[in-house]
């Protein structure tokens, strides 16, 4: 999340019209309990179970192994020189493993960028998308996104935004395990996205909205943006009891525009998510966390209690330069989860975390959380909170939802890019054979204009403006499945202007704190 365009985004928004008791210590003894099967049973309710230890370990691995993730310049360089491409490859393999058995597919979407000021890019940027097809409404899509690139001077970029990438993995692992254990599948299609070049001006997310899914905007139900996280509730700066609990922010789409009713319903659901997740965490056995008193002694304090709900701030989106911006412009309900981001504010407090600085490392995150660089329970739990909020929201029927699984393949139509009259379009089916009995599938397309085609991948050109129903019928000896999407074809379909083009950044943030 670049500091350079914080104020500009604010202007943009104005223009958009009886349980187990566990004391937690820095050795993370609770993390194993949180992942334990016996604690699932203790809640008497089936819930996706987030593994905090897994999220922390993935953050540590990705931040330390794949450094200097500068977009547009990784020409097969070593991971210690530029780990941009290797980070994306590792993340893709890990998330596909977490989601195996649910038809997940990965797509690398390359696009041109200009690079930093006075230093043109030498390679394309790339968004990475992993799709899990929905079993009931595969035409409807939920997007979970974050960015993986860093500033020109970055090292680990651990908080901003390897933390969000690790949270995405934690969500995928929790949902994949839950679906398998409960023998269910998602009703709607779920897409995990790594956006590139966020630090250079949100070019990855604008490319995604304007090119990759432009023809599919009306089919996107919601977007969750996992921004820089971990330096937030239930942390106290340096782990010291005399320091106040740090806030955690949920930045929500303002209620405005044609989708105001959908946004209002989304915000109401999010308001229910926070107390529900607090209750879930305490039901899993986590009821206290240790901090250091003035005598450097560990003192246990209650956490995730009803009186601490106010530490989670739900508000109209005030966060600039993050990847929810083009989705908000397009009228899609969005939630951005973010921790501390006050470092570049005038008169910023001492506890402000130096994101966008070379000092943004996992070791510094631990130090902010507990006073030393070793693995911190508070940091690990702070990473788990946005993960659990996201999984709770996904499970709701109006969001991703779930349905009883069967042996039929999961199928979705791939992203539909900008639909213009007279422009040839590519349509493809995203499918995975989940059973040998469906080994032979045929794909028949109805473009809604009297034309048809067959095949996994087809091309078509609409010659007249209008509203069309795109239909895909998938047939085998055992099943017939039909998917439809409503398409609006015109000469001038919406393109959402990137408000940050004029901020031609050098990639070098200020070196001093205000």
From TrEMBL:
Q: Which Gene3D superfamilies match?
A: Immunoglobulins, Zn peptidases
Q: What is the lineage of its organism?
A: Bacteria, Bacillati, Chloroflexota, Ktedonobacteria, Ktedonobacterales
InterPro entries, alphabetized: Ig-like_fold, M28_fam, Peptidase_M28, PKD/Chitinase_dom, PKD_dom, PKD_dom_sf
**Molecular-function annotations in GO:** metalloexopeptidase activity
Report the protein name in the record. PKD domain-containing protein
One GO-annotated biological process of the protein: proteolysis
Query: Residue ranges of the PKD domain?
Result: 435-476
Entry's SMART domains?
A: PKD
Q: Which organism is it from?
A: Dictyobacter kobayashii
Pfam families in the record = Peptidase_M28, PKD_4
């Amino acid at each position: 999340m670049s500091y350079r365009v914080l104020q500009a985004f604010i202007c943009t928004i104005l223009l958009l019209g009886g349980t187990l008791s566990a004391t937690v210590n820095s050795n993370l003894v609770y993390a194993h309990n949180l992942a334990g099967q016996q604690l699932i049973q203790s809640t008497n309710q089936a819930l996706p179970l987030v593994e905090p230890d897994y999220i922390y370990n993935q953050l540590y691995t990705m931040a330390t192994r794949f450094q200097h993730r500068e977009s547009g310049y990784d020409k097969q360089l070593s991971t210690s020189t530029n780990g941009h491409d290797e980070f994306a490859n590792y993340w893709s393999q890990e998330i596909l493993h977490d989601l195996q058995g649910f038809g997940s597919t990965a797509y690398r979407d390359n696009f041109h960028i200009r690079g930093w000021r006075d230093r043109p890019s030498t390679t394309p940027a790339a968004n990475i998308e992993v799709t899990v097809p929905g079993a009931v409404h595969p035409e409807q899509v939920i997007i979970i996104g974050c960015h993986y690139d860093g500033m020109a001077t970055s090292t680990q970029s651990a908080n901003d935004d390897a933390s969000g990438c690790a949270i995405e993995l934690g969500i995928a692992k929790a949902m994949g395990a839950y679906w398998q254990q409960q023998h269910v599948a998602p009703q709607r299609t779920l897409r995990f996205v790594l956006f590139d070049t966020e630090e250079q001006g949100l070019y990855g997310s604008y490319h995604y909205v304007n090119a990759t899914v432009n023809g599919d905007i009306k089919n996107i139900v919601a977007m969750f943006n996992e921004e820089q996280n971990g330096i937030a509730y239930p942390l106290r700066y340096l782990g010291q009891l005399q320091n106040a609990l740090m806030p955690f922010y949920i930045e929500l789409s303002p209620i405005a525009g044609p989708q105001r009713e959908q946004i209002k319903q989304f915000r109401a659901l999010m308001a229910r998510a926070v107390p529900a997740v607090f209750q879930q965490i305490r039901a899993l056995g986590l009821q206290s966390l240790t901090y250091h008193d003035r005598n450097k002694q560990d003192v246990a304090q209650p956490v995730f209690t009803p009186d601490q709900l106010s530490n989670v701030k739900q508000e109209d989106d005030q966060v600039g330069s993050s990847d929810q911006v083009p989705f908000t412009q397009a009228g899609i309900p969005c939630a951005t989860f973010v921790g501390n981001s006050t470092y570049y504010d005038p008169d910023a407090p001492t506890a402000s975390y130096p994101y966008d600085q070379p000092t943004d490392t996992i070791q510094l995150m631990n130090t902010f959380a507990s006073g030393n660089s070793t693995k911190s329970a508070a940091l690990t739990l702070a990473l788990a909170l946005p993960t659990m909020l996201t999984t709770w929201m996904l499970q709701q029927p109006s969001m991703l939802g779930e349905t009883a699984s069967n042996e039929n393949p999961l199928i979705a139509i791939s992203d539909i890019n900008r639909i213009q009259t007279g422009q040839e379009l590519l349509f493809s089916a995203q499918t995975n054979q989940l059973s040998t009995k469906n080994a032979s599938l045929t794909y028949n397309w109805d473009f809604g204009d009297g034309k048809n085609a067959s095949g996994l991948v087809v091309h078509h050109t609409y010659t007249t403006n209008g509203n069309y129903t795109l239909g895909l019928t998938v047939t085998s000896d055992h099943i017939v499945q039909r998917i439809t999407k409503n398409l609006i074809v015109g000469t001038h379909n919406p393109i959402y202007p990137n408000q940050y083009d004029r901020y031609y950044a050098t990639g070098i943030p200020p070196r001093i704190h205000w």
